Amino acid sequence: QVQLLESGGGSVPAGGSLRLSCEISANIGGVITAVGWYRQAPGKQRDLVAGIATDGNVKYSDSVKGRFTISRDGLYNTQTVWLQMNNLKIDDTATYYCKAERGFTNYWGQGTQVTVHS
């Protein structure tokens, strides 16, 4: 089993910052490889915000480049993944989900709400 626990969401004014955290823990049965943050706004699909691939390459969606930074600490089956979000915009409002990959299986956190207001 793989467990993901997200925290750090909240309500901030436009231009503000938030830092999301995702604590990942897994039992023996394979290592966690790629990790990432996704978001889903009401009525829209869940999209990638930022991800770290198995080889360490980092990818950002165009809408957050230069404003968000993803990072991670730890190895194998115990990791923490952060998403530093700066200069937040109203369009960043969504539920943010952490994802971890192990083998061919994706595991998701429960989501944390980010609301950016004017």
Structural class: mainly beta
Number of strands: 11
**H and E order:** EEEEEEEEEEE
The tally of helices reads 0
Shape: elongated
Report how far apart the termini are: 41 Å
Biggest β-sheet, characterized?
Answer: 7 strands, mixed
Q: Helical residue percent?
A: under 10%
Q: Compute the average pLDDT.
A: 94
Beta-strand share of residues: over 45%
Summarize the structure.
By secondary structure, the protein is mainly beta. The protein has strands at residues 2-7, 10-13, 18-26, 35-40, 47-52, 58-60, 68-75, 78-85, 94-102, 105-108, 112-117.
What does this structure look like?
The chain has 118 residues and is mainly beta. It contains no helices and eleven strands. Strands 2, 4, 5, 6, 9, 10 and 11 form a seven-stranded mixed beta sheet that branches. A hairpin with a 5-residue loop joins strand 5 and strand 6. It is elongated. The termini are far apart.
Give the SSE map:
Blueprint (H helix, E strand, L loop, with lengths): L1 E6 L2 E4 L4 E9 L8 E6 L6 E6 L5 E3 L7 E8 L2 E8 L8 E9 L2 E4 L3 E6 L1
Parallel strand pairs: 2-11
Antiparallel strand pairs: 1-3, 3-8, 4-5, 4-9, 5-6, 7-8, 9-10, 9-11
Characteristics:
118 residues; mainly beta; 7-stranded mixed beta sheet; 4-stranded antiparallel beta sheet; elongated
